[in-house]
Design brief:
The protein has 16 helices and 12 strands. The protein is of the alpha/beta class. The chain folds into 2 domains: 147 residues, Collagenase (Catalytic Domain); 237 residues, Aldolase class I (TIM Barrel, Alpha-Beta Barrel). The strands form 2 sheets. It has an 8-stranded parallel β-barrel with strand order 5-6-7-8-9-10-11-12, surrounded by 8 helices. Helix 8 links the parallel strand 6 and strand 7. The longest helix is centred in the last third of the chain and has 21 residues. It is elongated and about 80 Å long.
């Protein structure tokens, strides 16, 4: 049965991902084997939960979560109805925000814990009865949250393919093959949700002819990566791709080495974004997983951020990779709460993609080199399908 979530709360600095919370609550119901029961969740402020706390529990002041089992005080005749309801969980966003900062969690992770806690109360657990009951409930909470981390019940993460390296192979001989335009068509037929190309100032791989033909032939979405210089802005305004991703660019680099320093270029980037906005072109900024850079991107009007995953992919050992993954996860959450749409990419391959694809706040991954490299052995269609299979497994409903 569906999870009903209502929000009696308004805050400009706080964005609630209601579908994410509903999906997590539904997953918890499955883990507790009560997926055939209805559950209502109400998100309120401290004032409303204080009133409920005083009225129903005779306790003053706000609390973080209250649970109201459906059967409590209900007429016995309701048990005869063919409806299965667990009850209501009421959570204070104000208190959850304070606790998320105190415990160094994202708001949505704290809300997930409070939903789990409230659900266990509805199922009969009560930490206030005794120390043994408190330990039992705490252990069950941890068990459910651990299971939730290893399951995924969210919408499919999109996969956009960067075909720059097809052009790199072509340019190595200075001929016309292989054609990145043809490669883009194969990627789309294999299931890609978008095509990404980086038009560099030195035209080392993608050239003007490519982007003109791609604009005419791409059926999904064309994302033009570029530096925020006068020439490239003029090309984008003329071409009108589905979106533009502004990236740092150095002549001597083999590939983009890091995210934009938005903080030091706010004025220039803001002007570029404003020009694109007036032309109806959404802009993404390619940034490191850094709160300051993400906040700056939001302040100057970016629609998207693409979080740089290079340090995560290049980590020397699992401990380092785990640390970088946590930084990306936190940054994606922060960007989402600011109201930004969140993409990620750079260096992702067939070993590193799954964890990033499993993050609920990231809606699209941009991957190129790893897929083109595999295509040299297995073919491009197969390479795209293999990557999609990894993402679909990461997205699989637990």
């Amino acid at each position: 049965m569906p999870v009903d979530l209502s929000i009696h709360y308004h805050c400009q600095d706080c964005r609630i991902h209601s579908r994410l919370l509903q999906r997590r609550a539904a997953a918890l119901l499955r883990e507790c084997r009560v997926a055939d029961h209805g559950l209502s969740i109400l998100l309120v402020d401290d004032q409303e939960i204080s009133w409920l706390n005083e009225h129903y529990r005779h306790k003053s002041g706000p609390t973080n979560v209250l649970s109201f089992p459906f059967a409590d005080g209900a007429d016995t005749s309701l048990s005869l109805l063919p409806v299965k309801e667990l009850g209501d969980i009421v959570i204070s966003i104000d208190t959850a925000l304070r606790e998320s900062k105190e415990f160094k969690l994202s708001l949505h992770d704290r809300l997930t814990w409070l939903i789990t806690h409230g659900l266990l109360h509805l199922l009969g657990y009560d930490h206030e009865l005794s120390e043994a009951d408190a330990i039992l409930m705490q252990d069950k909470e941890q068990e459910l949250l651990t299971r939730l981390q290893h399951s995924r019940s969210t919408a499919m993460t999109h996969l956009a393919i960067n075909v720059d390296h097809i052009a790199t192979i072509r340019q190595a001989r200075g001929g016309v093959e292989p054609d990145p335009v043809a490669a883009a068509a194969i990627c789309e037929m294999a299931g890609a949700s978008g095509i990404v190309v980086h038009l560099r100032e030195d035209r080392r791989h993608i050239i003007d002819r490519d982007i003109r033909l791609l604009r005419e032939t791409v059926k999904t979405k064309l994302n033009l990566e570029m530096g925020a210089n006068k020439e490239m802005i003029g090309i984008a305004l003329d071409l009108k791709p589905d979106m533009v991703t502004l990236v740092p660019e150095k002549r001597q680099e083999l590939t983009t080495e890091g995210g934009l320093d938005v903080l030091s270029q706010k004025k220039m980037l803001a002007k570029a974004i404003d020009k694109m906005r007036k032309a109806g072109i959404p802009v993404s900024l390619f940034v490191d997983p850094d709160t300051r850079q993400i906040k700056a991107a939001h302040e100057i009007g970016a629609t998207f951020v693409e979080i740089h995953t290079g340090r995560y992919c290049d980590a020397a050992d699992e401990k380092g990779r785990d640390q970088e993954f946590k930084i990306i996860a936190t940054s994606a959450e922060e960007a989402y709460q600011m109201g930004l749409r969140v993409y990620a990419g750079h260096g992702l391959n067939y070993q590193t993609t799954a964890r990033i694809a499993a993050l609920d706040t990231i809606e699209e991954l941009s991957i190129g080199h790893a897929i083109i490299a595999r295509a040299a052995f297995s073919g491009l269609d197969r390479a795209v399908r293999d990557m999609l299979a990894i993402i679909q497994e990461a997205n699989r409903i637990g």
